[in-house]
Amino acid sequence: MINQLISKIKETNAPIVVGLDPMLKYVPEYIRQQAYAEYGETLEGAAEAIWQYNKGIVDAVYDLIPAVKPQVAMYEQFGIPGMIAFKRTVDYCKEKGLVVIGDIKRGDIGSTSEAYAVGHLGKVRIGDKSYAGFDEDFVTVNPYLGSDGVKPFTSICAGEKKGIFVLVKTSNPSSGEFQDRLIDGKPLYELVGEKVRDWGAECMPESGDYSYVGAVVGATYPEQGKLLRKVMPHTFILVPGYGAQGGKGSDLVHFFHEDGLGAIINSSRGIIAAYQQEKYAGYGEKGYADAARAAVIDMREDIASALRNR
Fold first, then answer.
1. What predicted TM-score, i.e. pTM, was given to this entire model?
2. How far apart are alpha carbons 104 and 76 in whole angstroms?
3. Per annotation, catalytic residue among 55, 87, 94, 105
4. Both ends of the chain: CA-CA distance in Å?
5. What is the pLDDT of residues 89-107, one digit of tens each?
């Protein structure tokens, strides 16, 4: 799957992943009212609204991008109906030829971690048959519990030829409270990066330069990204924090190798709620999907320009 992701990046010339992180305040009122008219102001109504909202965005941008990243918490808040919307979103994106990164940030030990890995990347055995649960192509993994929490995912990745992105240096302001702490003279994020490199060495595809084990490194920390790029030369890096969190194209160049590969940049509300920004306000609520498309095109050019001029 990592090679498929790289192929899609080359095809679209856009190392971009759109974060499908819907909140009701992002969903245009006309979509909400249509959903509520059918299902009421209920969990089912909210889930229908976010599904229709997602579908509109995907229809508008799927030809421009290689991948999407639905954040599961935005769906879980609506209970079972929300998780049905999550699954519908995953399936629809795959129908459109997009690589799906499930942003689930799971990480536990033993059989619990294995169950997470099976549910999101693998297949569960029921009697004589096997079934894929959510069936994403990649998921994000929290490494805080160490190898016990990560190895069940890498085992599934090897069998299913899917992938993970391990949290290494996250984009949020307080990430340094733990991740920047020095241990034997090195920040914790660097030690985690070294472990990601080692896990990845055990989980390489038959061909290609990148492991099934990727890393998450925030756009808001470009200097750390520069270091981690060297620490993890065969690791594909998922970079959140572009746009709404302050990251911009010029911050991103060190995440990439000289050939322009090695990283994929995430933007969530900067794209899916673009119509609420002054720059794209002219599209209006009815044009929310067209605004998202325009934001993707602008982001693609920003990144391409930064890479050309580095």
1. 0.96
2. 10
3. 105
4. 29
5. 999 999 999 999 999 999 9
